[in-house]
Specification:
- By secondary structure, the protein is an alpha+beta fold.
- It is built from 11 helices and 4 strands; from the N terminus they run αααββααααααββαα.
Length: 442
């Protein structure tokens, strides 16, 4: 009895000495966004962002490289993803811990005077937990790898999104003055036609045609301004900036050269190095290890220990204590079936993603030269349109061209310039998609 009392007195000290401390962390009550670009973090926590040593000055404007670096460092969704990485690391730590031994103390007070109180003390260990430790560590390690690769793939997507927004904003900034010039030409032409209509020098159908052309350009301008405003808001959100923050862009998108023949030769190897593919492979390892662990768990669960007891007559006893589950009804068959089906699901998912990744890269490689060829043809025809516009201006100044004929020549030239700018954006978008599919090391 004295032993029980002594142990019960020591137990709180032993337990409390190994306990972790708790500190509350209240939820935030205010926004956590930067108000200026200079207030953003510039450290690069991932190899997904290109050129970690790329130097830039926000006051001079951001090019596509610096924009991608800032996006990876400051994107709010990536902050959440990195927090999940901390959870996965904690799970690896937890998987390596062994179950604590169990101490059982009991006492039976005698109801008869003169008879001693009986007590029992037992110390037990779960042997099954020790045997499953390796499987737990394997599963947790694969889960950590999966989370790491998912985070890297998400960072790749943020880099691609930053580049796409950069190209779209730069494209819209280039198209805006061209549309404004076209609007001015059409407005001047429409006003001149109204005067000519009064003088009965033009027909009403011609005036209406010019009015419809002007309305079309007005609609294009309004749509462009809305898209420009939305893209700026999306860019601020991507960077973790407030809605009022101004981001100045500079330079132009300069894609890395891609050797199509080399990519095709190494395609299966390249797609298997993609983080989303590696994450799926890690997920398959998780299911594989879980299936193996479920099969092991069908065998009897064993726990061993030692028990010491004193009966009512003062006789002491000590001996082993063995507990063994009997796999008669359950035998863990349900968990085995679930684990096997889950493994098959990931297997099929990986195969489908591998096929899709291969196909996406092939399509992007095939589209790239087609867009480049079309862009080259349009650029080759631009000088002739410029010459025609200049000739029309000279003829108008000499009194040989009407204002409507001058406006028509200028509009054709401006429309071709807009088409070229849009085609350049399409080419950049295709190059960004290819870089995202292949990664920075392709």
């Amino acid at each position: 009895m004295r032993i029980l009392l002594r142990l019960s007195g020591y137990l709180p000290v032993i337990v409390l000495s190994a306990c972790a401390s708790y500190a509350p962390k209240p939820l935030p009550q205010q926004l956590d966004v930067a108000t200026t670009v200079s207030a953003l973090h510039t450290d690069n926590p991932s190899r997904a962002a290109p050129r970690p040593t790329h130097l830039f000055d926000p006051a001079q404007g951001l090019d596509s490289e610096s924009l991608a670096m800032l996006a990876v460092a400051n994107n709010p969704e990536l902050r959440v993803a990195r927090a999940s990485l901390g959870v996965a690391r904690a799970q690896v730590f937890s998987a390596g811990l062994l179950a604590d031994p169990q101490l059982a103390l009991s006492q039976a007070d005698a109801m008869t005077v003169g008879v001693l109180n009986a007590w029992t003390m037992g110390l037990g260990f779960d042997v099954g937990d020790w045997l499953m430790r390796s499987s737990r560590e394997h599963i947790a390690g694969a889960q950590l790898s999966q989370v790491q690769q998912q985070l890297l793939w998400q960072e790749w997507q943020v880099v691609a999104q930053a580049r796409v927004l950069y190209v779209q904003l730069r494209t819209q900034a280039a198209i805006l003055p061209l549309l404004q010039r076209e609007q001015k030409f059409l407005t001047d032409n429409y006003q001149a036609d109204q005067v000519a209509l009064v003088a009965q020098n033009v027909t009403a159908d011609a005036v209406n045609a010019n009015w419809l052309a002007l309305q079309t350009v007005n609609l294009q301008l309004n749509a462009l301004r809305r898209d420009l405003r939305q893209n700026r808001a999306d860019l601020n959100g991507l960077l973790g900036l407030s809605d009022t923050a101004q981001v100045t862009l500079a330079g132009e998108f300069m894609p890395q050269p891609v050797d199509a023949s080399h990519v095709r030769a190494q395609l299966l190897t390249l797609v298997k190095r993609r983080p989303d593919m590696v994450a799926l492979a890690a997920a398959y390892q998780v299911r594989e290890a879980s299936y193996h662990a479920a099969v092991l768990a069908q065998f009897p669960v064993l726990s061993v220990g030692v028990t010491r007891a004193t009966d009512n007559f003062g006789d002491n006893s000590i001996g082993p204590d063995i507990n063994l589950s009997l796999p008669i009804f359950n035998r863990n068959r349900g968990n085995i079936a679930i684990a096997k089906a889950s493994r098959e699901q990931i297997y099929q998912t990986y195969q489908a993603r591998l096929d899709s990744a291969y196909r996406e890269v092939v399509v992007a490689l095939d589209n790239l030269p087609l867009i480049q060829q079309q862009l080259a043809q349009m650029r080759a025809g631009l000088p002739a349109l410029r010459a025609e516009a200049e000739q029309a201006k000279a003829a108008w100044q000499a009194g040989n061209f009407t204002a409507a004929e001058l406006a028509q020549a200028q509009i054709i030239y401006l429309a071709k310039q807009i088409e070229i700018v849009k085609l350049q954006a399409m080419l950049a978008g295709q190059q960004i998609a290819l870089l995202t599919l292949l990664g920075p090391d392709a």
